[in-house]
Specification:
The complex is a heterodimer of chains A (392) and B (293). Chain A is α/β, with parallel strands linked by helices. Chain A has 2 domains: 35-156 and 296-381, Response regulator (Rossmann fold, 3-Layer(aba) Sandwich); 159-287, Response regulator (Rossmann fold, 3-Layer(aba) Sandwich). In chain A, 42% of the residues lie in helices and 18% in strands. Chain A has 11 helices and 14 strands. Chain A has a 6-stranded mixed β-sheet, with helices on both faces. Chain B has one domain: ABC transporter involved in vitamin B12 uptake, BtuC (Orthogonal Bundle). The mean pLDDT of chain B is 87. Classes of the chains: A alpha/beta (392), B mainly alpha (293). Chains A and B meet through strand 7, helix 7 and helix 8 of A and helix 1, strand 1, helix 9 and helix 10 of B.
Chain lengths: 392, 293
């Protein structure tokens, strides 16, 4: 008798649990809730590395975007509506993105700057596509980041950086032996490297060297592989680049040229204790922002940023984020009354992607007459920014 | 890339792993616990050197920095042992392992809060290279090698001939019997951690002499690789730590030299760890222990 009672009770409990679970799951797949229905300000969200090795880029984006939002709000906002900007820390790790995304989305996020770095942004692009959330990233440069139609880039895509660098080498560098140092466990670095390799002329010999991991004990092996090259392409971040150049300064020829991409931004200012003038070679990188500009929109931005936040986090990532906020403002104004403060993310996303992909032009700190393709890539001119000339 | 430069590059990296592995293997051999926070004690030592070298670049200051870093690491090691490991003396080894990993993350996070995460260049003196024909060996590598060998010999003699050293050996063989013979087990284990942490400070110093860039994850990966090296050579065996480290360093240099394999070098190293554990768990120099039932 006791056994039978036990069996009946456990059966009833099991059925109840299954029923409750079914109800819970079915309510999840209900029509998408519009979390922005109660917004009183436009909510622009972003995720980036506020701590960790790439923090200088995340902080630059956060500071610059906040500066732009303060300026716009002080002038009355967009069509009279103020902006609320929130940026969460993802530590340059894709596994932190979904939590950040969900937190901000459920708090009413309507538009976003996506992520600052490539690997996290690949996660963001999938999440935002499901919700139709528009994003324009200041710096996540892998081509695949803008795979879906709700995604745009203010920065050069890796395809562009790798191709531009390779074309530059094909046309301007007479050396036949071209060295490259890339980080094999970083999507950004391998992305640019692969495009560089495939665009490089077959008359050049490519000497490849790679490293991996957050810290490198010594670049001795890579130096012995690259030391005979007079032109070394480095699609890596400034921290390891500084360490490599330091360790290699007596091995690599003094008239060699180091050439990098946007990851090298900050190499002269952001490594404490590293004095770039001790490196005999020329150091330059591909950029859309000249942090030593003496006139124009760039100079105005530099002056405002430095007086507010100091020089340590002044780089093209921040300038790009500043432009992203102003570009969003211009696009919303162009949309007229199709976008309101309580519009859902997918409604806003539909309108914005039509505007950005439909001939919209924007002039800002990182370029004049910037336009976008329907597939999200940006069109603007690149500068070869020489951080440091060769020591004579 | 010829064989000789690969060997020299392997030596560059291997001697650093050797200094770290000596500390690991000593603590495991005597206290029978894997101190996964060892790599982060190295990081603390590195930051101590950074702080003092930043005050002035002079040579006496540099030696002072080394001394202070050894003292700081020793005190840190003793504190960690007293606070995190001693209360778990009777618990399962798994609990101690998890605690060690927790201490490791704690140290990394504290360092990140205090020093921020941007890489910092430490003002250590640049010792240059010695050229043998066409090949250059870094002076710092030779110094590290010399010190590692000296430490290895000193430790082996200490354990065999010194009273405290013999007590450490006794504790490692049979803790209960040692206690019955009058050995103060707590004191011995504290001394073990102290010596291990002092070695960690030296490892940090040599690491910086090799390449003077500090980040908060400075010690984490080398710590794990040194642990792998210690296992390959035979965990608990001091000469084993040296041999395992040099072997691992050379394997790493070989992988680095082949562009197609280089991205997978970590995978290769840890696969070797798995193979060794499957085929010869006591490592290259470890002795097979017969357990009497």
């Amino acid at each position: 008798m006791k056994n039978l009672a036990k069996k009946i009770i456990s059966a009833v409990m099991a059925i109840t649990m299954i029923a409750v679970a079914c109800v819970a799951f079915s309510s999840c797949s209900d029509a998408k809730k519009n979390y922005a229905a109660n917004n009183t300000e436009f909510y622009i969200g972003a995720s980036g590395p506020l701590t960790g090795g790439a923090a200088v880029y995340g902080m630059a984006v956060k500071n610059s975007a906040e500066m732009a939002v303060e300026e716009i709000n002080a002038a009355g906002g967009i069509n009279g509506v103020k902006i609320k900007f929130v940026m969460m820390d993802d530590k340059h790790d894709a596994s932190n993105v979904s939590t950040n995304y969900a937190t901000m989305y459920e708090a009413g996020m309507q538009i976003s700057l996506g992520c600052v770095t490539t690997a996290p942004c690949k996660e963001w692009k999938t999440l935002s596509y499901e919700d139709g959330l528009f994003f324009i990233t200041p710096s996540a440069s892998a081509d695949i980041v803008v795979e879906y139609d709700n995604a745009f880039q203010m920065c050069f895509a890796d395809e562009n950086q790798g191709t531009t660098a390779a074309n530059y080498v094909n046309e301007n560098v007479s050396e036949t032996k071209i060295g490259v140092l890339y980080k094999s466990d970083d999507a950004y670095s391998t992305g640019i490297f692969n495009k560089f390799k495939s665009t490089l002329s077959s008359s050049k010999t490519l000497v490849e060297a790679s490293f991996s991991g957050e810290t490198v004990a010594s670049f001795a092996t890579q130096i012995s592989q690259l030391k005979d090259c007079k032109f070394i392409f480095m699609p890596i971040y400034y921290g390891p680049a500084a360490q490599f150049m330091d360790e290699a300064k007596n091995d690599v020829a003094p008239d060699a040229i180091y050439y990098g991409c946007d990851g090298l931004d900050g190499i002269d200012t952001s490594v404490e204790g590293f004095d770039i003038s001790t490196i005999p070679q020329e150091v330059s990188y591909l950029s859309h922002f000249n942090s030593q500009a003496t006139d124009g929109a760039a100079k105005t931005f530099i002056d405002k940023y430095v007086s507010k936040y100091g020089k340590e986090t002044l780089n093209q990532f921040g300038a790009s984020a500043y432009d992203c906020i102003y570009a969003i403002k211009a696009a919303i104004e162009a949309a007229g009354n199709k976008i309101g403060v309580t519009s859902s993310p997918s409604e806003i996303g539909d309108v914005l992607k039509g505007i950005f992909g439909g001939g919209f032009t924007f002039s800002g700190v990182t370029g004049d007459s910037i336009t976008w393709n329907k597939n999200g890539f940006v069109n603007k001119s690149a500068i070869k920014y020489i951080v440091k000339e060769k020591n004579s | 890339m010829d064989i000789l430069s690969i060997l020299i590059n392997g030596l560059n990296v291997g001697v650093i792993y050797a200094m770290i592995a000596l500390g690991y293997t000593m603590v495991y051999g005597i206290a029978k616990m894997l101190n996964f926070a060892h790599g982060d004690i190295i990081m603390v030592g590195g930051y101590a050197i950074y702080v003092f070298c930043a005050m002035s670049g002079s040579l006496p200051m540099f030696f002072g920095a080394i001394l202070i870093s050894v003292v700081v690491c020793t005190l840190l090691g003793i504190t960690v042992e007293k606070v995190a490991y001693r209360p778990l003396r009777g618990a399962s080894p798994l609990a101690v392992l998890i605690t060690a990993i927790g201490v490791s993350y704690l140290l990394q996070s504290l360092a990140q809060i205090i020093f921020k995460s941007a890489p910092k260049r430490v003002a250590v003196p640049d010792l240059g290279k010695i050229m043998i024909g066409e090949l250059g060996i870094k002076v710092s590598t030779l110094i590290t090698l010399a010190v590692s060998v000296a430490v290895m010999i000193a430790l082996s003699c200490f354990i065999r001939y010194n009273k405290i050293g013999r007590a450490m050996l006794a504790v490692s063989e049979d803790r209960g019997a040692a206690e019955l013979m009058g050995v103060n087990v707590n004191k011995i284990i504290t001394i073990t951690f102290a010596i291990g942490s002092a070695l960690a400070a030296l490892a940090g110093l040599f690491y910086l002499l090799q390449s003077p860039y500090m980040t908060t994850t400075f010690g984490a990966m080398p710590g794990i690789k040194a642990f792998t090296a210690a296992v390959i050579g035979g965990i608990g065996s001091i000469p084993g730590a040296m041999v395992g480290s040099i072997v691992l360093g050379i394997i790493e240099a070989v992988c680095d030299a082949i562009p197609a394999v280089a991205p997978y070098k970590d995978a290769v190293e840890f696969s070797i760890l798995i193979v060794i554990l499957l085929v010869r768990p006591t490592g290259l120099l470890g002795k097979k222990r017969r357990e009497k039932v």
